[in-house]
Design brief:
The chain has 520 residues and is an alpha/beta fold. The chain has 16 helices and 23 strands. The chain has helices spanning 2-13, 62-81, 84-100, 102-113, 117-136, 176-187, 201-214, 228-237, 250-262, 285-297, 314-330, 349-365, 401-404, 420-428, 443-452, 491-494; strands spanning 27-29, 32-34, 41-46, 49-58, 144-147, 153-161, 164-168, 191-195, 221-223, 243-247, 266-270, 275-279, 307-313, 369-372, 376-377, 387-388, 391-394, 411-417, 432-433, 435-439, 457-460, 476-477, 495-503. The protein binds 2-aminohexanedioic acid.
Length: 520
């Protein structure tokens, strides 16, 4: 089998072994870079210019997943028994490598998923921050002690790893989100199988390469690329995988959750958003417009935290819209590899179709006003990419589909409101609950909104995007299932509690019985 794989790998690379060596990527299983059993590859292209082939990546099978799971199982005992501070030392090394190669990863990311260089750099930086932060936990991983109810008895609680974790990650933060899951999983002593999004395997590959170079032992991290319907499904179904951590669409997340529920596996979900910025009549309008533009059109609106609804007080509605539309029209759309570009392409043809269909719904079904944008750009420099103009709808009402459903593209909807209470009601009136924001100069209003908005993240005088790695990240309602990534809270996903009682009395002591208060 190993020989067959080698022959296959050679064939894939061409007889000289050189032709596609630079851009043919392999799975990483048990510390070995290996092609898929399928012998099949998929070609990934730059969404800003589809003539540019980023690389060929394995289309993996159930057998590949099984091999990765077996490798992760084998590595588990020695990794879990490696003291956490020692695990963390290796992770600090990963952080240094990520830092060293940040520029290269940044360029790779812009090329594979389109986000502009500055934002791709931010994504890599988020992975670096997360790596250092999680590594710091190696010398904490705090449990607790508490008094026992008996004399000469000690009670404490310690964290133990879950075992084998499957990490299924999306394309919009192709290095940051894998790191949010991988780093805490590692510091807690788990071994993992990672399944990156089909559109962005390269950034995860770069992350795994850095881990290999840092000396994370074989089998601790396994990488299996391919289709979600095969690799993701097999991982979610695999009896040896104790936990699945998933970020992606609500629809896929629900499938993953059902598969996990079937076999009593733990499942952490991070899914959609329909995040609102509320702009009050006393807001600094210029600042609010800047926040809205950044939140709505950053990453071409392809963030689960994107500011896809702008709920604006009627008194400043006109002024806000004028400034917003002027700013949106002036945004430079194009290939994110050019430093002057502010909005890159969207990820793929399916995304174009979905976003354009919502633009059509906004105009023709919902009856909102298309204030700017709305076109799929196909001419000249745009001919070979997936570009959509930054789009603003105004006169949107809260019940419209464009105000309710996640579009995941450069489209935002401005909804008028007559009071803070109404704005809060509108903001809460969607199926998701990830992030929200308010622009106001009034501290009472800010706190009132903070208290009444039902989301996992809330900003005052800042956009709905830009979460930092040391605070918990996640959402309420349809966004998730109650877990939080990042912060120390993520440790509760990747470790389980073990309550430990030590009786040093030298005799039998029966809890709830021997020391019980006599009745009457
Ligand atoms: C996502 O959109 O899937 O807060 C994650 C933010 C980023 C992470 C976004 N730090 O917008």
């Amino acid at each position: 089998m190993a020989q067959a794989k080698k022959a296959l790998a050679k064939k894939q690379r061409g007889s000289s072994g050189a032709r596609t060596l630079a851009n043919t990527y392999l799975n990483y299983i048990g510390g070995r870079w290996t092609p898929s059993e399928s012998g099949e590859w998929s070609e990934n292209r730059n969404p800003a210019d589809t003539r540019d082939v980023v690389g060929r990546f394995p289309v993996s099978t159930n057998e590949d997943v099984d091999a990765a799971v077996a490798a992760a199982r084998e590595a588990f005992d020695s990794w879990r028994l490696t003291p956490a501070p020692k695990r963390a030392e290796l992770m600090f090394r990963v952080g240094e490598i990520l830092m060293r190669d940040k520029q290269e990863y940044t360029r790779d990311m812009t090329r594979e998923m389109g986000k502009v260089l500055k934002e791709a750099g931010g994504d890599v930086q988020e992975a670096i921050d997360c790596t250092y932060y999680a590594a710091g936990e190696g010398r904490r991983l705090h449990g607790f002690t508490t008094p026992a109810e008996m004399p000469n008895k000690f009670a404490m609680c310690v964290r133990q790893p879950m075992g084998l974790c499957g990490l299924i990650t999306p394309w919009n933060f192709p290095m940051a989100i894998p790191s949010w899951k991988l780093m805490p999983a590692l510091v807690c002593g788990n071994t993992v199988v990672m399944k990156p999004a089909e559109d962005t395997p390269l950034s995860t590959y770069n992350l795994v390469k850095a881990c290999e170079e840092a000396g994370i032992p074989p089998g601790v991290i396994n990488l299996v690329m391919g289709h979600g319907s095969v690799v993701g499904a097999r991982l979610s179904d695999h009896p040896a995988v104790r936990l699945i951590s998933f970020t992606g669409s609500t629809e896929t997340g629900q499938r993953v959750a059902s598969a996990c529920a079937e076999r009593n596996a733990i499942c952490s979900l991070e899914m959609g958003g329909k995040n609102a910025i509320m702009v009050m009549e006393d807001a600094d309008i210029e600042n609010a417009v800047e926040g809205a533009v950044w939140g709505a059109f950053g990453t071409s609106g392809q963030r689960c935290t994107a500011s896809s609804r702008l709920i604006v007080h009627k008194k400043v509605y006109k002024k806000f819209n004028q400034q917003l539309v002027a700013r949106a029209k002036a945004l430079r759309v194009g290939n994110g590899a050019d430093e002057k570009i502010e909005v890159g392409p969207v990820i793929n043809p399916d995304a174009v179709e979905k976003i354009m269909s919502y633009i059509d719904i906004g105009q023709n079904e919902d009856g909102a006003t298309l204030a700017c944008g709305g076109r799929h750009l196909t001419k000249g420099d745009y001919a070979n990419g997936y570009f959509i103009e930054p789009t603003v709808f105004t006169d949107v009402t809260p019940d419209m589909r464009i105000a309710q459903e996640e579009i995941f593209g450069p489209v935002t909807s401005v909804i008028p409101a007559k009071s803070l209470d109404e704005a809060i009601e509108i903001a809460n009136g969607v199926q998701y609950g990830l992030s929200a924001a308010i622009y106001t100069q009034n501290v009472n209003r800010a706190f009132h909104a903070m208290n009444d908005i039902y989301t996992g993240i809330f900003y005052v005088n800042a956009s709905t995007i830009g979460a930092e790695v040391h605070l918990p990240f996640g959402g309420t309602k349809g966004t998730g299932n109650g877990h939080r990534e990042a912060g120390t809270q993520v440790l509760d996903i990747f470790s389980e509690w073990k309550s430990v009682y030590v009786d040093y009395s030298g005799k039998l002591q029966r809890a709830q019985i021997d020391n019980a208060k006599a009745i009457g």
